[in-house]
Design brief:
CATH superfamily of the largest domain: Metallo-dependent phosphatases
Largest sheet: 6 strands, mixed
Distance between the termini: 50 Å
Radius of gyration: 22 Å
Strand content: 25-35%
Number of strands: 20
CATH topology of the largest domain: Purple Acid Phosphatase, chain A, domain 2
CATH class of the largest domain: Alpha Beta
Helix content: 10-25%
Length: about 350
C-alpha cells in the first residue's frame, strides 16, 4: 500500500489584507507555491498512490475569499473524484476550522474537523486513520483527551495512522536549528504517543524531518515540511513531500524534493551613510539578482527610524534588475520594520 503525505501548503500566500512591500513579487511567490502543490497531487496520481494525506495548513489564512478557496481545493477534489481517498485537517493558519460546507458533497475527501477515526480498505490493508484539528493553547495538556475522543483505540486494523498538526519534542525549525522540548506547553512528548500507532503524519513544522518514538523506534513521526520556502528563515532548507510504502509490518518513507525558490539576506550597516551612499551600496549587490530570487536587504545600526537616511524604496525597486521579490527591513532596536 502506498500513500503520499504532504502538509503546510499555505495556498493563498498572497491574499492578505495587509499590503506587502512588494505585492507583485508576493503574487509570483504564491504562484510558485501553487505550482508545487500541483506537482505533489500529480505525483500521487502518477504513482498510483492508494491514499493522499494532508496534515494541516492547506491555506495561508482562514479569511480568504470563498471563490479562492474553491479554486485552491480543485486539484485534491479532482484527485478524490478519480477514486483516491484524501484525508485532511485544518491547521493553525486555517484557525483549526474550514468553512463548514467547503468540502460538502465531495466524495472520498475525509476532513478531521473534530476528533474522530475512520477505516479505509486500501490495497488489501484495513487502515485506521485518526485525527483532530490543530489544538490551540496548551496542546500538551489537550492532546491525550483529543486522542481519546478519536475512538481509535477500539478499532481493529492492519495499520493505524495519526494525522495531526502539532509540535513534538525533538522537532527542529528555523535557520538556527531551534529544537522544541517536552517542557513547552505547545509541545507533546513523543514517548507519550500511543505505541499501537504505526505512523504519525505530522504537520506544522516547515523543515522535513523524521522523529522516532523512544519506546518504539519503528513508529515514525514524519514532518514532510512545507512545499516551498515560505520565509527567509527557510532559505537553506530543501522542500518536498513524503511518499510512503507499506510492506508487511514496515513503512518505508522517501522524501521527494520539489523545486525551491532561491533566497538571500544581505545585511548593510546603514547608519552613518547618506542616502546616495546607501543607494550605491545597494546597487553593488545587483550582481546577485536574477528572475527567480527572493532577496531582503536588512539595514542595521539604528535605534530609531530617523537614524537612517531617507530612501524611496519603490523607486529603488523600479530601477533594479529583474528579481522575484525584493524587500527592505530596517532594524529599530530589537524589531524590524518592512519597507
Amino acid at each position: 500500500m502506498r500513500f503520499v503525505h504532504t502538509a503546510d501548503t499555505h495556498l493563498g500566500f498572497d491574499l492578505l489584507k495587509r499590503i506587502p512591500p512588494d505585492p507583485e513579487g508576493r503574487r509570483r511567490r504564491a504562484e510558485a507555491i501553487s505550482a508545487n502543490f500541483r506537482r505533489v497531487v500529480d505525483h500521487a496520481r502518477e504513482a498510483e498512490a492508494h491514499l493522499f494525506i494532508h496534515s494541516g495548513d492547506l491555506f495561508h489564512s482562514h479569511a480568504l475569499p470563498r471563490e479562492a478557496l474553491e479554486s485552491f481545493i480543485r486539484p485534491i477534489a479532482d484527485l478524490a473524484r478519480s477514486g483516491m481517498p484524501v484525508v485532511i485537517l485544518p491547521g493553525n493558519h486555517d484557525r483549526s476550522v474550514f468553512p463548514f460546507d467547503l468540502f460538502h458533497g465531495e466524495k472520498n475527501i475525509y476532513v478531521f474537523d473534530r476528533p474522530h477515526s475512520l477505516v479505509l480498505t486500501l490495497n488489501g490493508y484495513d487502515v485506521c486513520l485518526a485525527g483532530f484539528p490543530f489544538l490551540r493553547n496548551d496542546s500538551r495538556r489537550l492532546f491525550p483527551s483529543a486522542m481519546e475522543e478519536t475512538g481509535y483505540a477500539g478499532i481493529r486494523a492492519d495499520l493505524k495512522i495519526l494525522v495531526t498538526h502539532q509540535t513534538f519534542d525533538g522537532a527542529r525549525c528555523g535557520s538556527g536549528g531551534f529544537t522544541f522540548t517536552a517542557r513547552r506547553p505547545d509541545t507533546f512528548p513523543r514517548r507519550e504517543l500511543p505505541p499501537d500507532l504505526d505512523y504519525v503524519a505530522a504537520g506544522h513544522i516547515h523543515l522535513h524531518q523524521v522523529l522516532f518514538h523512544p519506546l518504539k523506534p519503528e513508529l515514525k513521526v514524519v514532518y514532510p515540511g512545507s512545499i516551498q520556502r515560505m520565509s527567509l528563515a527557510e532559505r537553506r532548507e530543501p522542500k518536498g513531500f513524503v511518499e510512503a510504502e507499506v510492506e508487511g509490518n514496515t513503512i518505508q518513507i522517501r522524501f521527494r524534493p520539489l523545486p525551491t525558490l532561491e533566497m538571500e539576506v544581505v545585511g548593510i550597516r546603514a547608519v552613518g551613510l547618506t542616502a546616495q551612499e546607501l543607494r550605491r551600496v545597494i546597487r553593488g549587490h545587483y550582481w546577485r539578482f536574477h528572475a527567480d530570487l527572493v532577496i531582503r536587504f536588512q539595514l542595521t545600526g539604528g535605534e530609531v527610524p530617523s537614524d537612517y537616511p531617507e530612501l524611496d524604496f519603490d523607486e529603488i525597486r523600479a530601477e533594479m534588475p529583474p528579481v522575484l521579490e525584493c524587500t527592505f527591513a530596517v532594524q529599530v532596536k530589537d524589531r524590524w520594520i518592512l519597507k
